[in-house]
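A common beginner's mistake is to predict each chain separately and then try to dock the pieces by hand. The better habit, illustrated here, is to supply every component at once so that their relative placement is modeled jointly.
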Amino acid sequence: MRSVLKTLTAAHSVAIALPVAIIVFVLAVWLPNLRLLFSVWTDVSVSLADKISLSLSLIPAIATNFTLLSASYTILIAVLTGINAALIVHLIRTRAVLGGGAAVGLSGMATGALGVGCAACGSLIVTSLIGTIGGVSLLTLLPLRGGEFGLLGVALLGYSTYLLAKKSTKPLVCEPELKP
Amino acid sequence: MEPEAKQSISSLSTPIAIVIAGALIAGAVYMGTSSGSTANAPQPQDAAQQTGDLEQMRVISADDHIRGNQDAPVKIVEYSDTECPFCKRFHETMKQVMDEYGKDGKVAWVYRNFPLDQLHQKARNEATAIECAGELGGNDKFWAYADRLYEVTPSNDGLDPMELHNIAQYIGLDMTKFNTCLTSEKFTKHIEDDVQNAVATGGNGTPWSIVVTKSGKKYPLSGAQPYEAVKQLIEVALKDK
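With all components supplied together, the output reads:
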């Protein structure tokens, strides 16, 4: 545990974890309005200052366009993704291997992304993905109205962090191949 | 446990996790779309085509409920569900917008109905109540009713249906006429047209808004965005001549 913390608080790990977490968080908050951002950023009549101001002004939507639950797992997914990224880079640098932890992390990110959005009123990614076959119908069957995807994402990312941390603290020794 | 067995379990953990996640998603999708589902009534998302084309927005006309200057250079068309907590929040944001930009006639607010029946079963009836208020008392009563409804509803189908009558009384509508209107199907088509138009323009949740500039350019705005974001978008839209 101590060695994992030491790894994560090292400058090179922070330099990876922090930007990754920020990017994931900002993308998650922007997600419902990617179409707006695209139209503004591709509009030559809009000044660069206005493009930047508008993009930044959407970030506080974490407080207005998310439930407490969805805001919580969105932040957790961002933080865990940052930690995962730092551990993956550390493993590649020190051992040149990844193992299953990275794959679990990726599935966690993908599942978590499905839960991002306004869980109460249908604006989840999942409803967009399956919009033509009844996305809202799906939500009504879920007690947390889609928050389940976010929580599952957090669980998978948490498990991935555990696997990566375990692998990174494993002593560097030569192991004989066990045969029956 | 034997070391080899441990190793074997460890190597299986990744595919198992992915399979579980996939199975959960697939199961939810299957249940959500199966004929045995309890929630299989036609919905906006069930519409044959969800084009997401902002140009399909119905032209703003005298039939619309418009707050502020009808000739404002910027118009915000909001598709809203009275039982959505985010719409309740965004209603306050829009009132703030009108306080700042409505007085000078720079911004007009156009309200359209977008009840998400499967999430909020009371929303469509409440949409009818708002429309009835508009018919019986004109534009002012429409907005007075909407303001009061969004103020008193706890959201997520929490509003006591009796409140619809109390609000009508509170804003001074003729109660007999209001009750008759509410039980009629006078606005069924109008509300459905609003819903279909929201879907056609790309709305898949509420609140769904379209900011229209003087030249006719349209910007989509999804969700209860903070006041500062709406203000920034209005400033961008006001610069478009």
